[in-house]
Amino acid sequence: MSVKLVYGVGFSLALLLAIQLAIAKAPIAKPNCTDHCENINIPYPFGMSKGCYLDEWFEIECSKSVHGPPRAFLSKIKMELLNVSVGGWAIVKGPIISFNCSGSKTDPPVNLTGSPFVISPDNIFTAIGCNTRALMTDNPLQRLGCESTCHGGQNDVDWREMLHNLINEVSPGDYRIEGTCNGTGCCQITNIPSSLQVFNPSFQDIDSGDQSADGCKLAFLGGTYGMNSWKKKNPNIHFPMLLYWMVNSSLREYWRGVDSKTLDCNNVSYSSSFNEVVLRCLCSHGYEGNPFLRCTGKFTLSC
Ligand SMILES: *[C@@H]1O[C@H](CO)[C@@H](O)[C@H](O)[C@H]1NC(C)=O
Ligand SMILES: *[C@@H]1O[C@H](CO)[C@@H](O)[C@H](O)[C@H]1NC(C)=O
Ligand SMILES: *[C@@H]1O[C@H](CO)[C@@H](O)[C@H](O)[C@H]1NC(C)=O
Ligand SMILES: *[C@@H]1O[C@H](CO)[C@@H](O)[C@H](O)[C@H]1NC(C)=O
Ligand SMILES: *[C@@H]1O[C@H](CO)[C@@H](O)[C@H](O)[C@H]1NC(C)=O
Ligand SMILES: *[C@@H]1O[C@H](CO)[C@@H](O)[C@H](O)[C@H]1NC(C)=O
Ligand SMILES: *[C@@H]1O[C@H](CO)[C@@H](O)[C@H](O)[C@H]1NC(C)=O
């Protein structure tokens, strides 16, 4: 009887321990560092206080807001962070650059020059307007943009309605903006250069070539991937922009000294602006944690 009881206790304790182990995830942040801001995981090299991030480029500010939950910002580049991965990508709230759109203030342009971030070529450039040539880059080496016209002398667009109509839910929770513009009222280009660090689009009148013209003109760079928080009905519409990031060689050197079975490393080329193929490591299959800190064997419950 007593043996049975001890057995019972031992069994449930083992089970509890197993469950505890399964729940206790390998750390993604440095010791004593907060590893999330609201529902966004913040893995090292990103961090929220001194000693928790690699350098100031990776500093995250988790700011309390009066309306609603705290939001995460990449302090140095002043962009709102929506998600980030140790795999080298980050999703930020993409700026919407507008001109003469009633009820809409333009967001500031993006300049990531000198930072470890580049704009991913997986984003799509979308422009809205009538009689509008929207230029994403306009320099002697590269002039890239698209043209949008409207029917029958119409010279303005309902930008709110247009933005909402851009978002297609292709399957539940999977929202996409690709292929929703045909040059009438809006236009898109998908061949974004891979080395882009500046996004400061300009607008021209197609007819006159003038800088300013009638009506609202607007442009943004946004990803095509799904995102649960990206709701069609959201009145404060925004578009997730995909960035790539990388660490400098000193941190990558660290990987060469680590037991190779815990890491799965590849040489990848993010962009020609980084001018090199860089080593990138993830935790190997069966391991979890943070490749920049430590990958530990996953506890698996085999029953
Ligand atoms: C973490 O915080 C605890 C309690 O404040 C302290 O004893 C410990 O040394 C800290 N560890 C590190 C790595 O800073
Ligand atoms: C961030 O991305 C990961 C992987 O795609 C996903 O599992 C997670 O839910 C995302 N987090 C947020 C806050 O969107
Ligand atoms: C790499 O970045 C770290 C953190 O910012 C810095 O301390 C170090 O000097 C850098 N090393 C090189 C080789 O740039
Ligand atoms: C972007 O920033 C860099 C350095 O901060 C500066 O030299 C450059 O002129 C800026 N580019 C644009 C297009 O604003
Ligand atoms: C382009 O799309 C608009 C609105 O979705 C539609 O009214 C128009 O007929 C389309 N034009 C062409 C050439 O497909
Ligand atoms: C803004 O657009 C309106 C027409 O919608 C036009 O009358 C006005 O001149 C435009 N303003 C500028 C600064 O281009
Ligand atoms: C990455 O490239 C370097 C040389 O540029 C090479 O020594 C190394 O073996 C490569 N690593 C992998 C995982 O392919």
TrEMBL record:
Residues 33-85 form the Wall-associated receptor kinase galacturonan-binding domain. It comes from the Eukaryota. The keyword Glycoprotein applies. Residues 1-24 form the signal peptide. Residues 180-224 form the Wall-associated receptor kinase domain. One of its GO terms (molecular function) is polysaccharide binding. It is a single-pass type I membrane protein. It is found in: Membrane. Keywords: Disulfide bond, Glycoprotein, Kinase, Serine/threonine-protein kinase, Signal, Transferase. GO terms for cellular component: membrane. InterPro entries: WAK, WAK_GUB. PANTHER family: OSJNBA0016N04.9 PROTEIN. This is Wall-associated receptor kinase galacturonan-binding domain-containing protein.
